[in-house]
Design a protein that fits this description.
By secondary structure, the protein is mainly alpha-helical. The protein contains 17 helices and two strands.
C-alpha cells in the first residue's frame, strides 16, 4: 500500500509526539521512541517537519523488489543528531530507572547500566540502522563500575554506550520483498515496550509519592547542573520545565518567585500521603500535630514499647513501627523540606 505524504503530515500534526506518523509508515522503533520521549522531547518532532518526505519515500520503497540496501559490511555514515539522541535518551532512561527502580539490589552495578543501554540501543535501532546490543550493554556495565553510586552516573554511562553503538553501527538486513507485518502484533510489541518502561515509574509514583517527588526534584536539579558550562541552555530547559507552574501563576493571579522549584513542591506535597497518615495513626496523633507533639508522643510510646522494658511478644514489632513512623514524620517536618 502506497503511503501518502498528506496523511503522514496530518498524523504528524495531530499525534506527532506520540509517533502516530511513524506507526503509519511502519517505523515501529521510531514510534516507540516517540511515545516514551514525547516526540524526542519535542525537538525531534519539530525537526521531522522537513524529514517526513524522506520517511514516506523510504516506506514506499520497502516493498520494491529492485530496492537494495547497502551491504551490512559497510557502516552507515556518522550522524551527530543520532549520537546526541543516544546520549540524551540514555540519560533519560537512566533517570527514570533511578526514580522507579533504585530500591533493587545491585542497582548501580546491573539495573542502571542495563536501562541506560536499552535507551541508547533504542535510538541506534531507528530507521535502517542498528548496532551491536551486546557490546553496547557491555560498555555500560564496565563504565558503571567507575561511577558507582553517583547521581550523575547515567551521563558517562550513556556517553560510553553511545560511542560503542556508533562504532559498531550497521545497516539492518533487507526485508523480504512484499513481506508485511500485521498491525495487531506490531501494536502488541510496542505496548509491551511502553509497559516495561512506564510500569516501574507508575508504581513508584502511586505507592511512594512523596519520596518520588523529592527524588524527581533532585534528579532534575542534577540534570540541569550538567549544563553549567552553558548557562543559557540550562535557563532554557528550566524555563520549559517550569512552564506549567508559570501558567498556573498567571491563571491564579499568583506571583512568580525565583525559588520556583520550592513552590512547586509546596503545591504537590502540602497534603499528607497515605504513608504519613498511617504514621500519624501509629503515634496516635492528629493531622495538625506539631513537631514537638510528634517528638513527645514518640518518646512516650517508645519508652512504653521498648523491648528491654516491655515483655510483650509484640513489643519489638511495635517499637520498630514507632521508629519508622517517627522518621516519616520527621522528613515531612524538616525545615528544608522543599529545597
Amino acid at each position: 500500500m502506497v503511503k501518502s505524504i498528506i496523511v503522514a503530515y496530518t498524523l504528524w500534526a495531530v499525534g506527532g509526539p506520540l509517533g502516530l506518523h511513524h506507526l503509519y509508515l511502519g517505523r515501529d522503533t521510531h514510534a516507540l521512541l516517540w511515545m516514551l520521549t514525547l516526540g524526542g522531547f519535542g525537538f525531534g518532532w519539530v525537526r521531522e517537519f522537513i524529514r517526513i518526505p524522506a520517511y514516506v519515500s523510504e516506506a514506499n520503497q520497502e516493498g520494491n523488489k529492485e530496492r537494495k540496501r547497502p551491504p551490512t559490511s559497510i557502516p552507515p555514515p556518522v550522524s551527530p543528531v543520532r549520537f546526541a539522541g543516544q546520549v540524551c535518551v540514555g540519560v533519560y532512561f537512566g533517570t527514570v530507572a533511578m526514580i522507579g527502580l533504585n530500591s533493587l539490589s545491585f542497582f548501580y552495578l546491573i539495573v542502571l547500566p542495563l536501562c541506560v543501554g536499552a535507551g541508547v540501543h533504542l535510538v541506534s535501532n531507528v530507521g535502517q540502522q542498528t548496532s551491536d546490543l551486546q557490546k553496547t550493554l557491555t560498555s555500560c556495565l564496565a563504565t558503571s563500575l567507575l561511577f558507582y553510586g553517583s547521581t550523575l552516573s547515567p551521563l558517562p554511562i550513556s556517553l560510553a554506550a553511545s560511542v560503542t553503538a556508533a562504532k559498531h553501527r550497521t545497516f539492518k538486513p533487507s526485508r523480504t520483498p512484499g513481506s508485511k507485518q500485521k498491525l495487531g502484533p506490531r501494536l502488541y510489541r510496542i505496548g509491551l515496550g511502553w509497559l516495561a518502561f512506564s510500569a516501574p515509574l507508575a508504581y513508584c509514583i502511586f505507592h511512594n509519592t512523596t519520596a518520588t517527588l523529592y527524588y524527581l526534584s533532585d534528579s532534575i536539579a542534577a540534570l540541569l547542573d550538567i549544563f553549567w558550562f552553558l548557562p543559557w541552555l540550562r535557563s532554557v530547559l528550566e524555563y520549559l520545565l517550569l512552564m506549567p507552574y508559570r501558567i498556573l501563576c498567571v491563571l491564579t493571579g499568583g506571583g512568580y518567585y525565583e525559588d520556583a522549584w520550592r513552590k512547586v513542591l509546596e503545591i504537590l506535597l502540602k497534603e499528607y500521603t497515605e504513608r504519613e497518615k498511617e504514621a500519624l495513626k501509629i503515634l496516635s496523633l492528629g493531622a495538625e500535630a506539631s513537631l514537638e507533639e510528634i517528638s513527645r508522643s514518640y518518646r512516650e510510646l517508645a519508652k512504653k514499647w521498648h523491648p528491654d522494658h516491655n515483655p510483650s511478644k509484640d513489643a519489638e514489632e511495635i517499637f520498630v513501627k514507632l521508629q519508622e513512623a517517627y522518621e516519616v514524620l520527621l522528613r515531612w517536618h524538616r525545615p528544608n523540606r522543599f529545597n
